[in-house]
Amino acid sequence: MTSFVTLSTAILKGFLRDRASVFFAMVFPLMFLVLFGGIFGDQEQSRLDLVQVGPVALLDEMPAESRAAFDATFAVERGDDLDAAIEEVRSGDVDVVVEMQGNELVAHYTRTDQVGSAIVQGSLRAFVDGTNVALTGQPPTFTLRTEAVEDDSLKAIAYVTPGLLGWAVAMSAAFGAAATLNGWRTSGLLRRLQLAPVSTRTLVSARVAVTLGVALVQMAIFLGIGVALFDLTLTGAWPAAIPLLVVGTLCFMAIGLLAGAVAKTTEGAVNMANFIVLPMAFLSGSFFPLEGAPGWLQGFSLLLPLRHLNDGMTDVMVRGDDWTAALVPMGILAAFAVAVTLLAARLFRWETT
Amino acid sequence: MGAIEVSGLTMAYGEVRAVDDVSFEVADGEFFGIIGPNGAGKTTTLEIIEGLRRPDSGEVLLLGERPWPRNPGLLPRIGVQLQASSFFERLTAREQIHTFASLYDVPRTVGDEWLERVGLVDKADTRVEDLSGGQHKRLSIACALVHDPEVVFLDEPTAALDPQARRNLWDLLSGLNDSGRTVVLTTHYMDEAEVLCDRVAILDQGRLLQLDSPQALVRGLRRSTRITVPGDAAGLDGVPHVERLEQTRDGVEITSAQPGAVLDALAGLGRLHGISVTSGTLEDVFLEVTGREYRA
Question: How many CA atoms lie within 13 A of A178 on its CB side?
Fold first, then answer.
């Protein structure tokens, strides 16, 4: 037990004093979280720019309640010069210009922005129709209510956080294991410890304990920042993500061990770990959702452990599934961990020569 | 029974016989040196005795026990300083020795004492990466000795050090077996072995060539003393007991087993001015046994 604490302390100090490792394990993934959180946050608030030329009764006399809904979609400005305003639409600075010709609302839009023009036409038509219905004084016969299949509070950040966390943990677990194994072998420390009264089990447990500790701190920081800065809402059985993350960490430590066993130098081992983890992160939906990807790619991604870690964490942390949703990913990750560890053990050498 | 008994040790890497039928014993409390040029098989021999490697054939008894396979009962009784630095990354000298102390279940204060003994107290808060070559070796030796082992193995503790740092380290090393501890040291410096070791084993190309005290090895040399006389050989014909007479850059080099008689004759000739007398060294022993100049 003393040996375990001693070794864990030595490994942890070595990690915390290695600025590059701390940066890539902690700061670098957080930069992505803040970046992605910021991008998606802005996207949700973006409104269409509308310039109103001359008096437009439909807008000016709109009841306050409807006007609020209208303002949620359009940022309204007033202008005097119709030609100048239309020129602004053409150059893309403004999405739409509206004017009133008798009882006709005329909207000038640009076809270069297809999504924007569709929203403009649809929204304006809905407001005109709505106003017509209101003027009849009759309650409408049919109404529409829309509901997202996800929880009301679900935002893009909810998908981004588990994916980026999965990547961050995969990276630091794989790098830590690869660099330790190779660094210790190159420096001769592995040999030295072989001649000290320390069992291999104690040595491995200490390394695993430090990596798990780092992974859990990463999780706390990610979720903390997500909740505090980006309105991330954790749902369902989110604590089930903790054991899931633990198994995932073990799996990626095994991958790091494999890289460390194969590579000849510490740099080589870290590069190899990076070469495995970074493409895997892209293919596992850590940076963007895989829904739009071709079917063969989605199928291939199911062969990657990170895909299962990401999916499992998304299910229990933000999709509102209960804890059983974490069981299958945990099983798959554990199987990966065992298989890769056995392979690494076969390829392991005590010395670089 | 000795601290170490080795018999018929043989180990090959592919075609190369790194260790070839080596047998010797090391007595309790002895300061034992294994010397030889690079690639002589010193480190491999040491690693087999420590239990890091399994020999192809031969027997090793370390403190009466077999070191291979890994013998946990033996580990607290031996200390090792490997050629590579073998430190935990980014720890300070003090943290390093405290870590090793704790792994051997020794109080930290013992680690501090060792830090003082090897003269690293002012470097205690320096990270191992920032220590000089000599400080590195000192710390590594302290880490090998922190648990007061019965046998300590030092693999080229002075390699790659400047002459000043080497001599400083000799002071530290020479006291290591004072308390009855057995020390086994490898080196490729002959002068080091002469100064430090009770007995030396000369290894070359995996074979054990000679094994005795440095004095006895030198005494056994046929060309035991060299006398260099400035000038040329003219007039030196009558000098007795000359084995070999050779003109060199510095003068005439006379090799003789009876230097006293030679010096008397030189005195009679009035040629004592500026002469130098060199008795044999382990380098000469190596030259005589292998027929090759010793190159570390």
Answer: 30
pLDDT digits (tens, 9 = 90+) for B248-288: 888 888 888 788 888 888 888 888 888 888 777 788 788 77
- Closest listed residue to residue B144, CA positions, set A56, A138, A191, A274: A191
Spatial separation of the C-alpha atoms in residues B258 and B256, rounded to whole Å? 5
φ, ψ dihedrals at A338, nearest 5°: -65, -45
Q: With beta carbons less than 8 A apart as the criterion, state whether B158 and B166 touch.
A: yes
Contact residues, chain B to chain A, C-beta under 8 Å:
50-52, 70, 72, 75-76, 78, 80, 82-91, 95, 99-100, 102-105, 127
User: Is residue B143 assigned to a domain?
Assistant: yes
Q: Chain A closest CA to B167's CA: distance in Å?
A: 26
Inter-chain residue contact B78 with A187, CB threshold 8 Å: no
> Are B84 and A187 a contacting pair at CB < 8 A?
yes
Fold category of A47-136 in CATH: D-Maltodextrin-Binding Protein; domain 2 (3.40.190)
Could you state, in order of their start, the residue ranges of all structural domains in chain A?
2-41+154-347, 47-136
Q: Based on the fold, state whether residues B155 and B239 are members of the same structural domain.
A: no
Which chain A residues touch B104 with a CB distance below 8 Å?
196-197
* Res A153: pLDDT: 44
Q: Using a CB-CB distance cutoff of 8 angstroms, which residues of chain A are in contact with residue B103?
A: 3, 6-7, 193, 196-198
Question: Exposed/middle/buried for A24, CB within 10 Å: 0-12, 13-18, 19+?
Answer: middle
**Closest alpha carbon within chain B to A11:** B88
Domain enclosing residue B272, as ranges: 225-279
Q: pLDDT confidence of A154, banded at 50, 70, 90?
A: low
SS3 of chain A: helix, strand, coil, percent, to 5:
70, 5, 25
* Cβ–Cβ contact A4 with B under 8 A: no
Contact call for A14 and B88, based on CB within 8 A:
yes
Binary contact (B102, A187; C-beta < 8 A): no
Summary mean pLDDT of chain A: 87
Say whether the ipTM exceeds 0.90.
no
Using CA of residue A19, residue A22, residue A24, residue A28, what is the dihedral sign? negative
Torsion of CA A312, A316, A321, A327, to 10 degrees: 50
Cβ-Cβ pairs closer than 8 A, A with B, add up to 70
Q: Residue B294 falls within a domain, yes or no?
A: no
Mark yes or no for CB contact A191/B70 under 8 Å.
no
Task: Say if the Cβ atoms of B80 and A183 lie within 8 Å.
Answer: no
The answer to whether the CB of A305 falls within 8 A of the CB of A251 is: yes
Q: What is the CATH number of the domain that holds B83?
A: 3.40.50.300
Number of structural domains in chain B: 2
